[in-house]
């Protein structure tokens, strides 16, 4: 997909790797000046050299850092046209537990990053977008925010929260020309994911085959396929889609892919 983002400034959280990196690179490839932000500063080292783009440390669970980083972007770039709230953490396979056993510390950490982080980032950036009378916010939710998986209570709760926060922000910010949407990826082949499928153990292979059997297209998404959806919703050409949740999941949530 090709859109014209010349003179646009885009801020992407969690842009050191995975879906965030693919979104940031795609926005850059379409002409935007991109601020790559992440709490993993080592993962941003290759960005700084790229023309016009910035690499800034940012932990979205840290309010003070959000305020100072957003201000720094405004000081250096003068505006923020696009915000992609991508930073997030999931529940590792070894940490999955039923609700009665789920550790409160893990709940707090995940809600702070995956849900409160989206709220705080949107709050800080919406102030600037309101003053500029326009903008695009795209939140990375998940199919599990629409249909939960077991054993991951904070993750499914946070992503469901992101879905409804997206819709609510669309209502509130429409009068200021700010369009707010979400992309809900299904299984996506990020680096962590690739390590998992290359795990030769029979348990890992079995788990992988079971997951793929739920996806009508029979494979995970590439990060570029997720970034395409983000680009479409973030583009100035999108003038009438707001409050939408775009699932990019190979048909996973379209219905039951297997007979019983
Ligand atoms: N990969 C999938 O299958 C999948 C599916 C659905 C949704 N998602 C969502 O997509 C987003 C990106 O996932 P990914 O698979 O690319 O993950 P990833 O682990 O490969 O990358 C996440 C990035 O976010 C950064 N990050 C984590 N916590 C942060 C924080 N507090 N502040 C700033 N940066 C932080 C990490 O350092 C990392 O660079 C997440 O919100 C995730 O929930 C992923």
Brief overview, please?
With 260 residues, this protein is an alpha/beta fold. It has helices at residues 18-29, 63-77, 104-132, 153-173, 191-197, 202-212, 223-234; strands at 9-12, 33-38, 54-57, 82-85, 135-140, 178-185, 245-248.
Task: Name some characteristics of this structure.
260 residues; globular; 7 helices; 41% helix; seven-stranded parallel β-sheet; binds nicotinamide-adenine-dinucleotide
Explain how this protein is built.
By secondary structure, the chain is of the alpha/beta class. The N and C termini lie far apart (39 Å). The radius of gyration is 18 Å and the shape is globular. The protein has two domains: 9-186 and 222-251, Rossmann fold (3-Layer(aba) Sandwich), CATH 3.40.50.720; 191-220, no CATH class. Helices cover 41% and strands 14% of the residues. The chain has helices spanning 18-29, 63-77, 104-132, 153-173, 191-197, 202-212, 223-234, and strands spanning 9-12, 33-38, 54-57, 82-85, 135-140, 178-185, 245-248. The chain is built from seven helices and seven strands. The model has no long low-confidence stretch (mean pLDDT 95). α2 (63-77) runs parallel beside α3. Strands 3-2-1-4-5-6-7 form a seven-stranded parallel sheet, sandwiched between helices. Bound molecules: nicotinamide-adenine-dinucleotide.
């Amino acid at each position: 997909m090709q859109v014209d983002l010349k003179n646009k400034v885009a801020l992407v959280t969690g842009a050191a790797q995975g879906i965030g990196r693919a979104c940031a690179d795609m926005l850059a490839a379409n002409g935007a000046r991109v601020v790559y932000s992440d709490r993993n500063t080592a993962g941003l080292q290759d960005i700084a050299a790229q023309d016009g783009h910035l690499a800034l440390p940012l932990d979205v669970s840290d309010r003070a850092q959000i305020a100072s980083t957003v201000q720094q972007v405004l000081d250096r770039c003068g505006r923020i046209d696009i915000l992609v709230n991508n930073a997030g953490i999931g529940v590792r396979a070894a940490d999955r537990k039923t609700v009665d056993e789920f550790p409160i510390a893990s709940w707090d950490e995940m809600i702070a990053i995956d849900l409160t982080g989206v709220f705080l980032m949107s709050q800080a950036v919406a102030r600037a977008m309101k003053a500029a009378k326009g903008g695009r916010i795209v939140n990375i939710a998940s199919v599990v925010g629409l249909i939960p998986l077991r054993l991951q209570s904070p993750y499914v709760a946070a992503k469901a929260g992101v879905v409804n926060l997206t819709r609510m922000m669309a209502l509130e910010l429409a009068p200021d020309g700010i369009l707010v949407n979400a992309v809900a990826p299904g299984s996506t082949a990020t680096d962590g994911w690739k390590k998992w499928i290359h795990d030769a153990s029979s348990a890992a292979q079995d788990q992988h085959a079971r997951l793929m059997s739920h996806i009508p297209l029979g494979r995970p998404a590439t990060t570029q396929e997720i970034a395409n959806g983000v680009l479409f919703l973030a583009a100035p050409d999108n003038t009438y889609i707001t409050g939408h949740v775009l699932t990019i999941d190979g048909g996973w949530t379209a219905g039951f892919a297997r007979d019983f």
